Amino acid sequence: MPPPILYNEMFQGDRTVRPHYAAFADWLKETPPERIAQNRHAADLLFHRVGITFAVYGEASGTERLIPFDLVPHVLPGKDWDHLARGISQRITALNRFLADVYHGQDIVRAGRIPYEQIAGNPQFREEMIGVHVPGGIYAHVAGIDIVRHSDGKYYVLEDNLRTPSGVSYMLENRKMMMRLFPELFARQHIRPVDHYPDLLLETLRELAPQGEEATIVLLTPGHYNSAYFEHAFLAQQMGVELVEGQDLFVQNNTVFMRTTQGPQRVDVIYRRIDDDFLDPQAFRPDSMLGVPGLLSAYRAGRVALANAIGTGVADDKSMYPYVPEMIRFYLGEEPILENVPTYTLRKEDDLKYVLDHLAELVVKEAQGSGGYGMLVGPTASSDERERYRQRILDAPERFIAQPTLSLSLVPTFCGDKLCDRHIDLRPYVLTGSQVRLAPGGLTRVALREGSLVVNSSQGGGVKDTWVVD
C-alpha cells in the first residue's frame, strides 16, 4: 500500500502556498537570509535570558534544556479555528458534566453507556470526592486538548489533558518573541491575540471564590525541581498572585492559611500544579513532602477552592478517551463536532488480539502515561522493542490503549539554514468557569527529527508560534 499523502499546512499538493500563509511566504521571500539567521540567534539568546528551560527527567540531576523554538509559525485560517473552538468547547463541557456525574449520580453508568469497572478500576478515580459539591459544578477549570490534522485534512482530538496541563507559558513567550523580532509580519495581517490569557485565567480563578475580586489566590508548585517550574513562576507573576510551595501553607479549622511576614493570611483559591497523589499527605501519599496536610478536609468542607478539582484525572485517562463521544451524546444530546482517533482498548479481548497481531502498524500508549514516555511507535520500533512491549501488554493489558499511526500534518521548519517539513500537533488551552474561554491558537509542538511523530519537548521536540489569521 502506498504511504498516505501528508497534509502540509503551508503548501498545497502542487507546492503553491495556501492563502492563509501568503503574507508569511511573501515576507520569507523578500527577507535576506542573514537577517533570518540573526533573528534565529537572537531568539535563542532571549529564551536563555528569560530562562525558558525545562527539566528532563531520567537524566543527570538538574539537567535543563532550552526548548527549541522555530521561527516558521503554524498558521490557521480563522474559520478553521472557529470550528476547532466550537468542538473543543463542546468536548470540555461534556467532560465536566461527566465528572460531576461520576462523583454524584453516575447516571451514565446506570444508562449502560460506560462500564462501571472502567470508572471504579481507574487509579485516578477518587472515592473521597463522591458527593462533594465543587463551585459551579466545574472540575476541569484549566485544560489542554491535543489536536492533530491527518492526511485527510481533518482535525482529530488526540488527547484530553485535564489534570495539570502545561505549556501555556511557551505559547505566550513564543508570541512575544515573534512580535519583538518580526513586527512587520503583524502589521501586514490580523493575527488574533493571545496575550490576554493570564487575565482570563485570573478571572476564571476569581469566579471560584465567594469573596470574588477580594479573594486571595495562590499558585501551588512542587518547587523549582519540577520540569514546568518556569511556567508556574511565569503565570503567578503574570496574574499578580503568590507562588507558593506546600510548606508555605497550613490548615487550621478546615481553613487554609498562607504564612506571610505579616502573619497568617487566609487562602480562598489554589491553582494547583501538583498531582492528586501529592496534594495532602494525610489523605493520599503519606510520604509526600510537596502537599499541605489537611487540604482535602478543607476542600471537602468548601472552605477553599481548587483548580483543577481533585479526581479530575478520571476523565483524561487514555482508557476513558474512547468514551468521550458517548459523553457528548449522553449529556448534551449532540453529535461530536471533532472526532476521536480510532482507539483499541486492550482490556477488551478482541481489541487485544488485533493489537498483538498488528503491533508493527500501531502506536501503543500507557493509559496513565504522559510526556511521550512509555509508548511504542510500532512502524519505527525494532522487532526486539516490539517483542519486549508485547510482554508488557500481556502482563497487564488493561494498562494500555492502541491507535493507528496517524500521518500528522507538516509545517516547514528550519533545519540549519534551510527549511524542512516536520510533523506537528496543536494544544489549545481551555478555561472553564461561568463560560468556556479559549485563547486563539495554542501551543504548536514540532517533532524536530526527520520522520519522527513524537512532538514532546522531553523527547526532543520543539515549539512554534500559532497564528489564527483573519
Automatic annotation (TrEMBL):
Residues 73-447 form the Circularly permuted ATP-grasp type domain. It comes from the Bacteria. This is Circularly permuted ATP-grasp type 2 domain-containing protein. InterPro entries: ATP-dep_Glu-Cys_Ligase-2, CP_ATPgrasp_2, UCP005522. It comes from Usitatibacter palustris. Gene3D superfamilies: 3.30.1490.270, 3.40.50.11290. Pfam families: CP_ATPgrasp_2.
